[in-house]
Amino acid sequence: MSGKNLKEYWKKNIITVVILLSIWFLVSYVFGIFMVDTMNNVKIGGAKLGFWFAQQGSIYVFVVLIFVYIWRMNKLDEEYDVNE
Amino acid sequence: MSVQTWTIILVALTFALYIGIAIWARAGSTKEFYVAGGGVPPIMNGMATAADWMSAASFISMAGLISFMGYDGAVFLMGWTGGYVLLALLLAPYLRKFGKFTVPDFIGDRYYSNTARTVAVICAIIVSFTYVAGQMRGVGVVFSRFLEMPVNWGVVVGMVIVFFYAVLGGMKGITYTQVAQYCVLIFAFMVPAIFISIAMAGNVIPQIGFIGTAEDGTYLLDKLDQLHRDLGFNEYTSGSKSMIDVFAITFALMVGTAGLPHVIVRFFTVPKVADARKSAGWALIFIAILYTTAPAIAVFARTNLINTVSNEQYSAMPEWFKKWEGTGLIKYEDKNNDGIIQYVADKDVNELTIDRDIMVLANPEIAKLPNWVIALVAAGGLAAALSTAAGLLLVISTAISHDLIKKQIKPDISEKGELRWARIGALIAVLVAGYFGINPPGFVAAVVALAFGLAAASFFPAIVLGVFDKRMNKEGAVSGMIVGIILMLFYMIKYKLGGFGGGTPEDWWFGISPEGFGTVAMAVNLVVSVVVSRLTSAPPQEVQELVEDIRIPRGAGDAHAH
């Protein structure tokens, strides 16, 4: 594989990681900690939303994030012919 | 059958299973001993990682801890799961592509320096020993509570079992026993949880019961908040820690998780880079099952407890109350001599003290579950403690045989000789861990939580920069690791153990507790590494090529040449 393609592959990888980590930060630190009081004005079932994100929601989103990453990277690996 | 008979049967059965697996999965080469031959399927590795990761503390103490901390318990829930996102996105695939055996291997090769390797070995050993002592103690405690055996004998039994399969099977034996241990521990955790969820919230799924209503139609969480207000406690759904501290602790636990050597090394055991990503996903699913159930148990158990004891006659307490009183985990002191239990926030009036561990250990009894379920909890707690202990012991033994002897002291050692040293290393590690389990030094309990801070402050930046910053050189990484871990140790000793003049929470820097200080130490490590590396010369060409190479997945299968 040529050097240019490798650079492009790496750049797309970085963009994917940055987007996913932004969501990671948003659901745990922003929803669950920094804005917890504001979020708590909304309720999901019997739980205040901020509290729920801190104790449940963020974990579900973490799982989804990893699987999105797996799917996206497998596609990238194939596209740039670096898969095994 | 009595609880004790059931416990003996279940514990004996699970132990026989672990030993059977160990005999079947003996390691014949160093590659099998260190990384299970690199052929573990991703789902299996996910389960093994989950068991490796979830310790006696996750199984026995966490739900109870959360039930006393309320909202603040989120630091553990998010902190000990969010790190897997970092592992999957920033570390696991690249370390797998690098394709050697240990974390110090990566640090030593990437930073072309045996000083860096030695610093990494020391960090790995400090982190693993603080952690493993707690596990051996956990084994002893489970034995003593369920089988009425002295704690020390419990530790010895645990040592013999771990010794057997860690020394015989190495990573290969550990991996497959951990898979079995995951199944035992998750079953043991979920069965009582489901029963209690049905009883308290009328829902089979605890996660849904958590946000659901009680029998009288009010939401459980609203009810619990009300109970807390009535008794003068902080509202359950709001915390008492400062926001900055909650942030710092959560972040330190996440980054620390991603930097723990016994977790990282699990990703060396799969065949391909794509499998390393997949196993991180599976691991988090298997962990999330327990971690999303724990806060539900916390709410059910807390509500149940307050309803059962608050303002009730002491003489009318159910049988479990008396039984756990005997173990000292529940203490009742009738201060106003009215025979009624006053359980309130005000320390002068409060008459009841409850150990957090009771929430999981006594939950099945409180919910009046059958005897075999109660016994199951004992087997589950043992599985959680043994699996984590084994993973840590392996890191210590590998650090000795591979990173020190093979890589530094005696590079021409034969395959057989190295394998023998790996086994001797495991033996020494078991003995030391057992010693600390029997004679726990006072500082162990205080520093276990800080193992994460140490991992965050030392490994995480060095590994991430090693992959993502091609310009990072040995000067930068070594000075970053040293400054990071010394700063963390200093803060820990000053504010946790009272050294260097000690200090109270008012003196904490930026209001951050020692548990959360890993976040600051990691940031300092990062800055020092980057600044120093830019002031010194770039890493050699072959190291830059190594970085290029680990960034693409292809070719991981045969990257084992030494």
Features:
heterodimer, A: 84 residues, mainly alpha, 5% strand, elongated, B: 562 residues, Sodium/glucose cotransporter, 2 domains, two-stranded antiparallel ribbon, 1% strand, globular
The biggest sheet of chain B, with number of strands, parallel, antiparallel or mixed sense and barrel status, is:
2 strands, antiparallel
Q: Helix content range of the residues of chain A, please?
A: over 70%
**CATH class category of the largest domain in chain B:** Mainly Alpha
What is the CA-atom radius of gyration of chain B, in angstroms?
24 Å
Number of helices of chain B: 23
Q: Given the helix and strand composition of chain B, which structural class is it?
A: mainly alpha
Q: SSE string of chain B, helix = H, strand = E?
A: HHHHHHHHHHHHHHEEHHHHHHHHH
**Which band does the percent of strand residues of chain A land in?**
under 5%
Mean pLDDT across the residues of chain A is 93
Which superfamily, in CATH terms, is the homologous superfamily of the largest domain in chain B? Sodium/glucose cotransporter
CATH architecture of the largest domain in chain B: Up-down Bundle
Structure description:
The complex is a heterodimer of chains A (84) and B (562). Chain A has 84 residues and is mainly alpha-helical. Helix content of chain A is 80%, strand content 5%. Chain A has 3 helices and 2 strands. Chain A has helices at residues 3-34, 36-39, 49-79; strands at 43-44, 47-48. In chain A, strands 1-2 form a two-stranded antiparallel sheet. The radius of gyration of chain A is 17 Å and the shape is elongated. The model of chain A has no long low-confidence stretch (mean pLDDT 93). By secondary structure, chain B is mainly alpha-helical. Chain B has a two-stranded antiparallel sheet with strand order 1-2. In chain B, helix 4 crosses helix 13. The radius of gyration of chain B is 24 Å and the shape is globular. The relative contact order of chain B is 0.18. Classes of the chains: A mainly alpha (84), B mainly alpha (562). At the A-B interface, helix 1, strand 2 and helix 3 of A face helix 5, helix 9, helix 10, helix 11 and helix 13 of B.
